[in-house]
Structures are given as C-alpha cells and as structure tokens.
Amino acid sequence: MRGFLKQYRSFIVFYLFNIALIIGIIMLDLFNQTRTVSNGSILYIIILSLVLFTLFLCFTYFKDRQNYKALREEINDINQPIHLFQDSSYHFEEFNRILNQQYGYYIEDLSITNEEKQRYYTFINQWVHQMKTPLSVISLLLQNAKQSNTQDATLIQNIEEETEKLTKGLELVLHSSRLDLFHEDFKVERISLSTIVRDCIKDHKTAFIRNKVYPVMDICEEHIIESDRKWLAFIINQIIANAIKYTAGIGKQIKFYTEKHENQLILCIQDDGIGIPSQDIKRVFQPFFTGHNGRKYAESTGMGLYLAKRTCDEIGHTIGIESEENKGTTITITFYNVTSL
After folding, report:
1. Residues 277/291, Cβ–Cβ less than 8 Å
2. Which of 294, 296, 291, 295 is CA-nearest to residue 279?
3. Residue 271's beta-bridge partner residues?
4. Which residue from 126, 132, 176, 269 has the least number of CB within 10 angstroms?
5. What angle do CA 294, 215, 251 make, to 5 degrees?
6. Whether 241 contacts 207, CB under 8 Å
7. Residue 307 CB: number of other CB atoms within 10 A?
8. How far apart are CA 292 and CA 282, in angstroms?
9. Roughly what angle, to the nearest 10 degrees, separates helices 9-32 and 39-72?
10. Residue 331 in contact with residue 271, Cβ under 8 Å?
11. pLDDT tens digits, residue range 8-32?
12. Nearest in space to 237 (alpha carbons), one of 209, 210, 200, 272
C-alpha cells in the first residue's frame, strides 16, 4: 500500500488541488450571483482543468524523460554501461533496485565461471604436458631400437604411428584450450610463407611416406605475410593432416601453391583424395561435424577444420573450401597486406 501511494501521490495531489479549485470557482460564482452557476463559469472550470491537467502531464513527462530514454536503449555489448534511473518515480526506483541486485548476482556467477574456466585451462595444459613425457620416452626407445637394428620393424612402425597420433591429438586439445585465451598468446610478425609451409610439410614427413602421398610445393620464396607463426602453423598442420588422411594411396599428391590478387595472397592446399559430398560441404567448419567421410574413419573428431576456421577468424585470415566428391578438395587461406622481399 505504501508503494502504491508513493507512486500515485502526485496524481492524488493534483486531483485534490483540482477539486479545491473547482469548489473555489463555484463558491465565488455563487457569491457574486443568485445561487446559480453560469454557463461561462462551467466552461471556465473545464478549460482551466484541462490546462492544469496538460501542464501536469508535461511536468511528469519531462521529469521522467531520461528514464524512458534509458529504457529504450539497446544493449549491443555485455560491457556496455547501463544508465541507471535518476530522480524517478517509485516504479523506476524499484526497477533500478532489482536491476542492481540482479547485476550483482550476475557478476558473482561470472566470477565463479571465470575461475572454473581458468582451472580447466590450467588442468588441460598440465595434462597435455604430462602426456608428452611418456611420448618422449616412447620416441627415445624407438630411436634406440632402430639404432640397435631390431628386426621387428613392423612393431616399431606401428608404435611410431600410434605415437604420432597421440602427439597430434594432444596438440589439438592444447590449442583448443588456448583459443579461449587467444589474446594472451598472440604475436604478429612478418613471416615467409614458403618457409612455414615447408616446415609444416616436414612435420608430416613420416605420414606422407607411410600413406604414399607426395607433397608438391610451388610457393614463391619472396612472399612475406603478417601472421602469428605458431597459430598459422597449427592451421596448416590441421589441413595437411586431413588431406593425408583422405588422400592415402600410391601416386596421390597434395599440392601447395599460391594465387596473388592485388594486395591479397591466397595459399591453396589441394589434394587428390575422396572429396566431400555436396550435402556436407557447408558444414565442415562446424564443431564435431564429421559428415559422410568421417563415419568411414573412426579417428575423425570433427574438430580440426573447426579450430582452423576459428583460428583464422582470430588472426584476421579467411579460410575457404571447394571440393568435388571422388576428385579432391582444395582449401584456401587468404592473407591480406602481403609484401614481397
């Protein structure tokens, strides 16, 4: 009841004032005339009441105008400040109180979420580094076995293959967790495109040989791009890993070449693999999407191209894909503001 009276107190005051004014005018008219109220006095009462009511509405509107404007504002950013109500009516004040209370709960929940996210990020990093230790030991044992001319070459090759899969999987998890804190692990520098592509090809040398797929590189040594070396290598490695997996076979090739358009340079990675069905092509950059081909390969996670696309968006490159089933796939990465040596 108190809130109701507080909200409508100005209306009550205006109403009582208007009644008192009408009574006063009628009393004056009766005092000056013979117990009757003239038509002119009635008209005067009506006009005066309307004028006072209009002035009251104008006063109320201008008093709360900024508050109504604040209610109409659109929020385009989570960090955009909210203009709180000033000198407002009871409803505005109560809404302001509730909004502040809710915002406090939101900040508290956000703080808890950020702490949990940070713990998850720390755990992932520690877990990946712990997994790398036994992998390093396995790699060392394999090298020793090779040097001692162990006869079981098939066993060594199988262990090498599984070790490589574990390494690539760990790298995928590590980069996936780091993407959420991308701004803390990002450094733009001038890079030779041919050098970084060549390094990525070397990283997959064993996989190329094992799957009998051959890289063909035709990239000008003079092309210099601006990018983050580590993240760009991650993108290219994901594309190469996919290309090898879906192109395995004697005589198959993966071609690396560039196309120049004004100040743009397009890196093309083209394979002669199984291609992608037309119904899947629009969804290959979605997380966990494996598609028709992915169901044939149990190792497909559906995360490689998604992370490549997300990383490209973060560092300002554009990734695209063209494919035809049973003929091959071409993935492009577009770089901007390219220079030459």
Report:
1. yes
2. 291
3. 254, 329
4. 126
5. 75
6. yes
7. 19
8. 13
9. 170
10. no
11. 677 777 777 777 777 777 777 666 6
12. 200
Question: What's the length of the chain?
Answer: 341
Q: Which two tokens stand for residue 314?
A: 């973060």
Between 323 and 123, residue with greater pLDDT: 323
| Run of H or E residues at 80 | none
Structure tokens at 39: 């038509």
The four Cα atoms 241, 321, 194, 300 give a dihedral, to 10 degrees, of -10
Q: How many CB atoms lie within 10 A of CB 152?
A: 10
Instruction: Name the one residue in this structure whose structure tokens are 């001319």.
Output: 149
Are 48 and 28 within 8 A, CB to CB?
no
How many angstroms separate the Cα of 301 from the Cα of each of 169, 242, 267, 298, 307?
A: 10, 11, 25, 8, 11
Structure tokens at 318: 């554009």
Question: 65: which 2 tokens?
Answer: 């105008």
Q: What region, left, alpha or beta, does residue 182 occupy, with left being phi > 0 and alpha being psi -120 to 50 degrees? A: alpha
**pLDDT digit string, tens, across residues 289-332:** 877 776 666 566 678 888 899 999 989 999 999 999 888 999 99
State the DSSP string of 215-254. EEEE--TTEEEEE-HHHHHHHHHHHHHHHHHTT-STTEEE
Q: At residue 194, what are phi and psi to the nearest 5 degrees?
A: -65, -35
* 331, 321 contact by CB (below 8 A): yes
Cβ pair 134, 167 in contact under 8 A:
no
Q: Which residue has the higher pLDDT, 215 or 71?
A: 215
- Nearest CA to 318 out of 247, 198, 225, 216 is that of 225
Q: Are 124 and 173 in contact (CB under 8 A)?
A: yes
**Residue 256 contacts residue 216 (beta carbons within 8 Å):** yes
Hey, what are 25's tokens?
Answer: 């005018």
Q: What φ, ψ does residue 318 adopt, rounded to 5°?
A: -120, 130
Instruction: Take residue 46 and report the two structure tokens written for it.
Output: 């009506």
